Amino acid sequence: MTALAVEALSKEFGGVHAVADLSFAVTPGTIHSIIGPNGAGKTTLFNLITGLYRPTAGRIVLDGENVAGLAPYKLAAKGLSRTFQNLQIFFNMTALENVLVGMHLRLDRRLAPAVLRLAGARRREAQARDEAAELLRFVGLGDYVTADSASMPYGALKRLEIARALALRPRLLLLDEPAAGLNINETAEIDELIRKIGETGVTVVLVEHDMRLVMGISDHILVLDNGRKLGEGNAEQVRADPKVIAAYLGAAALGRNDAAKGG
After folding, report:
1. pTM of the predicted structure, to 2 decimals
2. Alpha-carbon distance 84 to 177, whole Å?
């Protein structure tokens, strides 16, 4: 059984193959990382999976259904949620309001109950606000529930975006470079948060350049180079793959990771 399967997937831009004949599968309930040098096709792959791009060829199978080219909102309704490499925060809203935006597919959007402030609508609104506040506490932002997002530090905003993605109650969560731009302490907080998310049963697919984080939390790692699969396996298999070492990790990077793990 797979949570996500990519089959012979390709995407061309003006004759250039950003993703080329790529196939892999993601096991439910795992943390699956995608790594590779800049320009390897990682974000293009995320944009294909989440419906921002239509593939030139191939299939994207979510829970047994080919969803290639399906609109993002339809994929969200099927339980797929994501964050972005560059923050997509509503800076004119509070942290709580940002998380509430992530619930929009689950909330009662009928006009009459909202306008008339019927008891049921008020009760559902209160429940949504309580759930949003609980999600903020889950990601370590309990002190920011009523804060204006524009005043929050960068590391907190990274976790706020994850909280909003979780508000959809996804089965599959895609995180695009969640540790980018973070210091050591903030990266450790993201590491812990991703582990917590995985423990809830949500399947996580992660694009990240921080190899210490990737090697420490991943059940499976896919390595891309020039839009193609270079290698895959668990952390030890990837660290030992000569092709991956030559093209991406390098002996120095592996040495640093070994030292970090006490190896």
Report:
1. 0.87
2. 7
